[in-house]
Every structure is written in structure tokens, then in C-alpha cells.
Design a protein that fits this description.
alpha/beta, Rossmann fold, 2 domains, four-stranded parallel β-sheet, 11 strands, 36% helix, 14% strand, binds phosphoric acid mono(formamide)ester
Length: 315
């Protein structure tokens, strides 16, 4: 593997899962791979899980790690080509990226959708410049349209808990006071379909994801109907794709609560975190013994380590 930006960078998903379970069982067994290798983790946006789990994964593999918050302590970066740089951004991405690449063997980048231009976000304008100019492998730590390390961790978690080969997995929109990117639901929907689970997506009208991410998943606008017989409920808020970046609803009747969970096949509850309690999910559901949110977060180390192991093996 050269870069990791989506499930499509994984050649064989079953093999990747096997490798993930191998590193989970034996986290320090591959330390030699990262000896004298350095990973820079670059954050344009805040993070708790991705920052800690990716750094931990790299350290488990024997790598040195450098974490940089671009907007705190580094020069502000201009990302547009051709602009007259007379504003508050003294450095251009076109110099910064190869410079960073010269200091390390792998770069992890977090760069969320900016909601300024749908086209720029969906062309992954920032991530693609890293891939083009870094000169080293690039790992997406959540980009504008996908969060693949999260989706891989979600897949690992479902595999660990599923009771049938092809579980019914429901991705449900839930209310939130701020406009959030579509990266997590896009990535989850795409990954679940490659995993060949029975995926249903439910959301209010106007919250349809981009068609390339919906794929062949069933879209059900009645949330209660969608929950019937579900084995896993994956909750997430996202802003509208069609009315790009807009909040069209904060309808709390979409909050995942105990009554809705009772419609399912004793489903597990999942969310990538951070989560707004009693907006996305009630205290009762997230604290129940069917909640997998901590297991998912813990598996972020496993997904990152499996990906980094494969990148190091192919350097
Ligand atoms: N789920 C996730 O990516 O969490 P952070 O934003 O805290 O990294």
C-alpha cells in the first residue's frame, strides 16, 4: 500500500481484517518495521481519538512520531494556487508539503471539508496536494469526504460482535446544532458496501448523501421502519449534501433512544465519537450494554496499526 485514503486502497479486505486481528493480538510484534522511521501527524482540525490512536499505532510499530497542529504554532498555510499572498497566510502548501515530506517517511493528514466549495471538498483539494507533493506515503486521518481509519475500525468492531455473516447495519442521521461534514457517513457507507453487509441509510428528506457513496444501499426515510430487525445502529449527524453544508433540520424525534432501539434485533449502538448526548443519542442508549462506542474508539489503534504496517512493509 502506498497511500491510504479510502477502502479502495485496500487490495483485499478480508486479508486486511486478518492483519488487523493479528496486530490486535500482538501489538508489539512488528516493531522492527518502524525502526528509524518517522511519521508526521498533521492536523488542520481538532482531534482526540485520531491524534492519540494513530500516534500510538505508529509507536507500537517502532516509529518516531511528530505531531503538528497547523493552526497553532506553525505558519498559516495558503492552499490556493495563484493567489497574491498579501493576507494572513505566510506559507504556501506547495512548499510546506515537500518540506514536511523531507523530514519523515509517512505523513498523516487531517483536513475536514470547509463547506466553502462543494467541488473543492469533493475533489479533496488539500489531501490530493499532499499526495502529489509529499514524496512519501500519505494516510488520511479524515479528509473532506472520507474518514477511512474510522470506517476500518468500525468494520473490525462489527466483525467482533456480529452473530450472522451478513448483518443488517443501519446508518442513521441524528440531530446536531452545528453543520458537520459528510466524511464519516460517506466513508462508512462505502466501506460497509465493500464489506458486503446489508446496509440501510435513514435520514430526513434533503440529507441524501452523494450518489457515489449511497451506491446500492437502501435509503429509508422512515427511521423506525429502518430500525426494524437491525443488528447494528450507526448514528451520525451530517449537513446537507444537496444544499451543501446547510442544516435543514434539528428534529429531536431523530435522536436514537431506547424506544427505537427496542424495534431492532437487540442491535448494538455505534458512533465514532465525539457525540452530543441527548441530541444524537440518549444517555440510556450510549450507557447501555449494547453500546460499542468505546470498543470502536479502542479499535482505532488497530486500524491505524494495520494500515501503517502495510505501508511500512511496502516502503
Ligand atoms: N472519531 C474521531 O475521529 O475522533 P476525533 O475527531 O477525536 O479524532
Amino acid at each position: 500500500m502506498r497511500h491510504f485514503t479510502s477502502v479502495h486502497d485496500v487490495e483485499d479486505l478480508n486479508q486486511a481484517l486478518d492483519e488487523a486481528f493479528e496486530v490486535k493480538k500482538n501489538p508489539y510484534g512488528f516493531k522492527h518495521l518502524g525502526e528509524n522511521k518517522t511519521m508526521v501527524l498533521l492536523f488542520f482540525n481538532s482531534s482526540l481519538r485520531t491524534r492519540l490512536s494513530t500516534q500510538k499505532a505508529a509507536m507500537n510499530l517502532g516509529m518516531n512520531t511528530i505531531v503538528l497542529d497547523v493552526n497553532q504554532g506553525a505558519w498559516k498555510l495558503e492552499t490556493e494556487r495563484g493567489v497574491i499572498m498579501d493576507g494572513d497566510k505566510p506559507e504556501h502548501l506547495l512548499e510546506a508539503v515537500p518540506v514536511i515530506g523531507s523530514y519523515c517517511d509517512v505523513i498523516g493528514v487531517r483536513s475536514f471539508a470547509r463547506f466553502e466549495s462543494k467541488q473543492d471538498d469533493y475533489e479533496e483539494k488539500i489531501l490530493s496536494q499532499f499526495i502529489q507533493y509529499a514524496g512519501v506515503p500519505v494516510v488520511s486521518m479524515e479528509a473532506a469526504t472520507r474518514h477511512p481509519l474510522q470506517s476500518f475500525a468500525d468494520h473490525i468492531t462489527i466483525e467482533e460482535h456480529k452473530k450472522v455473516d451478513r448483518p443488517k447495519v443501519v446508518l442513521t442521521w441524528a440531530p446536531h446544532p452545528r453543520a458537520l461534514p459528510q466524511a464519516v457517513p460517506n466513508s462508512f457507507a462505502e466501506w460497509m458496501q465493500v464489506a458486503d453487509y446489508d446496509l440501510v441509510i435513514t435520514h430526513p428528506k434533503g440529507y441524501e448523501l452523494a450518489p457515489e457513496f449511497v451506491g446500492n444501499a437502501k435509503v429509508e426515510y422512515d427511521q423506525e421502519k429502518a430500525f426494524e430487525g437491525a443488528d447494528f445502529i450507526y448514528a451520525k449527524n451530517w449537513a446537507s449534501y444537496s444544499e451543501y453544508g446547510q442544516i435543514l433540520s434539528t428534529d429531536r424525534s431523530w435522536t436514537v433512544d431506547e424506544e427505537k432501539m427496542a424495534l431492532t434485533n437487540n442491535a448494538y449502538f455505534m458512533h465514532c465519537l465525539p457525540v452530543r448526548r441527548n441530541m444524537i443519542v440518549t444517555d440510556g442508549v450510549i450507557e447501555s450494554d449494547r453500546s460499542l462506542v468505546i470498543a470502536e474508539a479502542a479499535n482505532r489503534v488497530v486500524s491505524a496499526q494495520a494500515v501503517l504496517k502495510r505501508i511500512l512493509e511496502d516502503l
